[in-house]
Amino acid sequence: MKGRYPIRRTLEYLQKGEIIFRNKVKIMTVNYNTHGELSEGARKFVFFNIPQIQYKNPWVQIMMFKNMTPSPFLKFYLDDGEQVLVDVEGKDYKRISQHVKKILGKTEEVLQAEAQAKMQASNPANFGPKKYCLRECICEVEGQVPCPSTTPLPKEMTGKYRAKMAESQE
Amino acid sequence: MFRVIGGRSVQAVRLLAPRSAVLVEAVRGRKSRNDPVAKSKEGRIKVPPPVDPVEMVVLKERYSEYELILRALRLEFKEEVLRKKYEEETGSQAEERARQEKEEHRALMDWNDQENLQMLKARILRIQKEEEEAESKTVEAAIQREEELQEFIRQKEKEILQLQEEAKNFITLENLDQRIEEALDNPKNYNFAIDKEGSVVKRTVLQ
Predict the structure, then answer these.
(1) Which pLDDT score, from 0 to 100, does residue B11 have?
(2) Complex ipTM above 0.95?
(3) Contact A104 B108 (CB under 8 A)
(4) Which residue of A135, A168, B110, B113 lies most exposed, with the fewest beta carbons within 10 A?
């Protein structure tokens, strides 16, 4: 694979991301330095965790600024204009991600409730338009009678034949 | 021959006659305006399907009742969905939830501020320490330079003394004659012999 740590580009790695922001968070800004011991945690955070965060929150704008301030920090811009500052000087990247998850991430219970609601809303037993249900007709299921538009039904199953048989019997 | 119409023109047309569910209009199919009628259809008179008045009355009754019920059901369901949505957004529970969320958010922001303060304190300490270290380093460097200077001066003094010592034995214009006399009186023999074992013999014959 191309690049260093190409595992960051695999779907499996991205889907393992833990930080899902609350609906209030709109913009995330990371200010860090490319050299220096104190920015090491921030650099690792940007390198490893930002792809996961962006994958899980496609509607949050994430911007990176390099070598603009002497010390690294994160800034979050919320819906109601509030700005949340997180100082990350000298911190470990794992600690940074835990911190962010604690203050602005959706909690486990909220996530589970949402998953439940989604499951309840979409019943796999329903048949209907592809937009709302899995299948439109029983002919799409493997092992069932195929659609008569592709292969004609055997004569005994057609309504025409059955009507003729019923008539001839009476 | 008939075509279903839909779109922006439908809303206006729907106000006119048709009460049916689907709006159809006649459309010229395969033949154009001036084509003659087909031979098999020359004497054809279009006759609408026969209607039994009794059946018509009964059917009209039943259909009106049926449509009424169906329309009522549809509106009921629509209303239920709207009501649910309204409850979701501006119900009593929604307010509770919003308040709780606000409180939690407040608590988390406070915790975050605490963390930031701690980082600030740590940073101040670190900067102070660095400043002190830099100061002590400069002081030490100054002392070092002083030391080196002193050393240099001492070295130079030693050399001067040594030179002074040697100056006593120099040959000058005054004692030139004397020294020549001395040199001629005491011939110095620089020759020496060495054997295979490496022992040096300095007492040799001068020629």
Answers:
(1) 60
(2) no
(3) yes
(4) A168
Question: 3-class SS at B156?
Answer: helix
Residue of A87 and B4 predicted with greater confidence: A87
Cα–Cα dist B91/B188, whole Å: 127
- DSSP per-residue string spanning B41-104: GTT----PPP--HHHHHHHHHHHHHHHHHHHHHHHHHHHHHHHHHHHHHHSHHHHHHHHHHHHH
pLDDT value at position A1?
A: 85
pLDDT tens by residue, B100-154: 999 999 999 999 999 999 999 999 999 999 999 999 999 999 999 999 999 999 9
Nearest CA in chain B to A99: B112
Interval A24-40: pLDDT, tens: 999 999 999 999 899 99
CA B7 to centroid of chain Cα atoms: 47
Query: How far is it, in rounded angstroms, from Cα B140 to Cα A23?
Result: 58
Sign of the alpha-carbon torsion through B131, B137, B142, B143? positive
Contacts of B148 (CB under 8 A, 6+ apart): none
Residue A126 backbone phi and psi in degrees, to 5:
-80, 145
Of B108, B111, B116, the CB nearest to A87: B116
C-alpha distances out from residue B71 to A78, B66, B67, B68, B125, Å: 45, 9, 6, 5, 76
Question: Tell me: the pLDDT tens digits for B38-64?
Answer: 898 888 999 999 999 999 999 999 999
Contact B194, B185 (CB under 8 A): no
Q: Are A102 and B122 a contacting pair at CB < 8 A? A: no
Q: Does A103 touch chain B (CB under 8 A)?
A: yes
Provide the whole-model pTM: 0.63
Q: Mutate which of B119, B120, B125 to disrupt the A interface (most A C-beta within 10 Å)? A: B119
